[in-house]
Amino acid sequence: MVAFTSTSLALLAALWPSLGHTAACAPAPSGLATTTTTSWRAIFTVPSDADQGQNILPNVQDPQAVNVQDVCPGYTASAVTTTSSGFTANLDIAGPACNVYGNDIANLTLSVEYQAADRVHIQIQPRYIGSENETWFILPESIIPRPGVADTGAGAANSDLEVTWSNEPTFSFTVTRKSTSDVLFTTNGSVIVYADQFIEFGSPLPEDYNLYGLGEVIHGFRLGNNLTRTLFAADAGDPIDGNIYSTHPIYHDTRYFTQDSSGNLTYVANATDTSVDYKSYTHGVFNRNAHAQEIVLSPSNITWRALGGNIDLYFYSGPDAETLIKSYQDSMIGLPAMQQYWTLGFHQCRWGYQNWSVLQEVVDNFAKAELPLETIWTDIDYMNQYRDFENDQNTFGYVEGAKFLGKLHENHQHYVPIVDSAIYSPNPENASDAYPTYDRGVKADAFMFDAEGDLYVGAVWPGYTVFPDWVGGILNGTGTLEWWVEELALWYRNVSFDGIWIDMSEVSSFCVGPCGKHNLTLNPVHPDFSLPGEAGNLVLDFPEGFNLTNATEASSASYAASTQASPVPTGTTSSSSSVSTTSSSSTSTSSTSYLRTTPTPGVRNINYPPYAISNVQGDLAVHAVSPNATHHGGTLEYDFHNLNGHLILNATYSALLKIFPGLRPFIIGRSTFAGSGRVAGHWGGDNASKWAYMFFSIPQALTFSLSGIPMFGVDTCGFNGNSDMELCARWMQLSAFFPFYRNHNVLAAAPQEPYVWSAVADATRTAARIRYALLPYMYTLFARANGRGDTVMRALAWEFTDEPWLRNADRQFLLGPAVMVTPVLVQGADSVDGVFPGTGKGTVWYDWYNGSDVSAGLKAGENVTIAAPLGHIPLYVRGGYVLPLQEPGMTTYENRRNPWGVVVALDKEGKAGGELYLDDGESLKPEDVTWVEFSATNGSLAATATGSYVDSNPLANVTVLGVKTAPASVELNGKALEKSTWEYSTDSSVLAITSLNDQTSGGAWCSNWTITWT
């Protein structure tokens, strides 16, 4: 080990410098399409119009749309009854039914429960559920559990929330925070509309409000007040502001106040006066409804609309975001899955790794470049004609695979393959097209039906496909779950994967309706779009500013793009993980005809609801299984669409528990719902190799942190299009501080592994070494997330709740409470502006690379220009925290066997604290666990270990930041250390203590110790 010196370039280097829809179905082939040839087989191509639905104009864009608030009567409450935890009431329609977007429900019931000191439940639903007079779909608790009344803290007297109601002029309810008298939500001034296919309720919001959440959307972290958020899972390649893969119907509302001498609070909009003391309160609202929903954020209101289900609201009082997130996870959706240690390493993937030999080359290239590689992934290339659970024996044969995977595992590296969410339906006239997975699924009653009671046959990558019926398996006892578990287990006998990547799970289908039902004799078929790299579909897109640095190549690409024929129908973009289509009716014109439907008494219009949500695909059946697809037992896809991704993740979790008994399953999924984080992580989908998408990765990650899915990352360097050196260098460094760290790009694009460019390799080495050194800290964050709901990636405003100027901050973020990341997010920059939160009240920030105090003299909210040449990502350590580190290696296996280090960042009082979690890194329920508590104060650092897990790695280094005066001596457990083992820098106020290995040779945490400096 080389000692820390005052001239070292980085703390890390100092520590370790060495290392029903049927009309649009595709009919029989005569005269419809011609046989085309791809690079590997002659197949029938699905006609392009097979994925075109009706021309739908969203109601929010429709000038002819009726405003239900103008014509609907609302309800009147009666028979109000007090209960042990709240009250109930009957709600009866207050006038003639309006029946605008469905058939009004005349009789409702209201239930209000003060379930816990910080949680109130308000539920409104039809009164006669299950009777002969009325049936209704309510989200089953067997699919999405709901919390009950807590054993302690329940009841109105214990709650900071108060629910009141009024019948003037019609029924309304109001939720108020008692401690501040602030109205958090009220339907007063509007009417509640409740029909069989349309529910609307809303509330005014304060001026210039701050709302967060309502994921998944590519948007800034703060949602703003001119946005329609659609919650309908869509296979759409990350369009900005459109609905994409996941559905999380929760939002946070943060409000900033000033307080007078009497304690009275005054709400402040757009507070920016840094001389004022502010106080904030954050509350949360979750609507336990899985139907298609639309939340309209206008300048003064939030309006919530759903196409079914019920009003099932949970209000959380907070009063801050971190407390709210913990309570939401603990009470409602479950605590996040604890990750295996290895999953926090670096992952490499691309669509286009052609065989095992290519994978081996990639693995070898990482080693040659001295870049860490934990896990190699494969996209759909490995599949036998894109079919789940079968490898192409010509390219990814089982024998060769066993050799590759054996070598990979011997080197303590890992392998994760993609698994899609649809199952190929074999050609009944071709005996060689047999597909046992399908046959076993049919035997298990594992697949959805169409409106006529036959198997629903759509189209995905392998051709015409069927779709697992997860709902039928849960509600009606079919063998779907058991079949899925067994298929993964059977496949594992041939392919020893370490985790699973679930894709296409919205669930996606490349045609409207059961288009393959009468066309199975054509299977296998080609999708109705060209794959990247096929004729007319070269990948020629580059990042913004590419022409400034690569003018000749940019000019050639621009010319080629202008001359190649359009490979896909207008509005459609293909990718390995999704194909995104935009509605042809995105704007209203006088000459365009749109489908508008009206309610039919006693009937739900499943395919074309009378209220048209603002779906990025338009027609609900475009690029999705149709709403009238049927589950076993008769329930409809209309009621369950947003749950497909969630349920396949749960099924895959069960499968991996069987395959790896006692080990934590590792799953990354695309479509998620509230609670998916309990079993899986999520990646950001099909982003683009654009600077804008690198920026959007931060708010996307923070939104998933808010939603209970901390294991999040994006396709680093971008998926669609070609990356370039500058973008990839910046992005590889940014993603090094995301929980899930993976590089992945599209078929036929230019390679973007970090070793492709020397500058990217250099930047990656720097950032990856820091990440790997920080893995003990990150792993401890995950332990706290799993144990009590803490967040891993954090918004600045969550930690610094009294600084309203941070409400929009989403270009910086915190990893846990102690590490702040300030990345460069624009092309051509060599500096970045950043704020140092808390400095107005004494928070100290230290530069990671030299340990110096960078916050001295800064004013509250002050923006600072920070030098950030290419290859450098500014990082800062927050005073008051102790960071456990470990010498970085090429794999996490090496990391966990390397010496320890500790960085102590003292606050302005000379104090700091921290913790370290230790276990075997893989067990679902570890038998042996150790927690190490760090406490620094009055010139000393104490480490106290509690638990039975034994780690034998020695302590090598301790670095203390913010030591104001040069010490005369340093002691370990009262014994003076030789002067040659420690050094103090007057310039940076850093005390570096090295060469502790011998004194801690039995293990850094095998006994408690104290280091003092005086």
Automatic annotation (TrEMBL):
It holds the Pfam family Glyco_hydro_31_2nd. GO terms for biological process: carbohydrate metabolic process. Residues 1-20 form the signal peptide. Its EC number is 3.2.1.20. GO terms for molecular function: alpha-1,4-glucosidase activity; carbohydrate binding. It comes from the Eukaryota. Coiled coil: none annotated. Residues 562-601 are annotated as: Disordered. Transmembrane segments: none annotated. Residues 789-883 form the Glycosyl hydrolase family 31 C-terminal domain. It catalyses: Hydrolysis of terminal, non-reducing (1->4)-linked alpha-D-glucose residues with release of alpha-D-glucose. Keywords: Glycoprotein, Glycosidase, Hydrolase, Signal. InterPro entries: Gal_mutarotase_sf_dom, GH, Glyco_hydro_31_AS, Glyco_hydro_31_C, Glyco_hydro_31_CS, Glyco_hydro_31_TIM, Glyco_hydro_b. Residues 562-593 have a biased composition (Low complexity). Residues 336-781 form the Glycoside hydrolase family 31 TIM barrel domain. The keyword Cell wall biogenesis/degradation does not apply. The keyword Hydrolase applies. Belongs to the glycosyl hydrolase 31 family. This is alpha-glucosidase. The lineage of its organism: Eukaryota, Fungi, Dikarya, Ascomycota, Pezizomycotina.
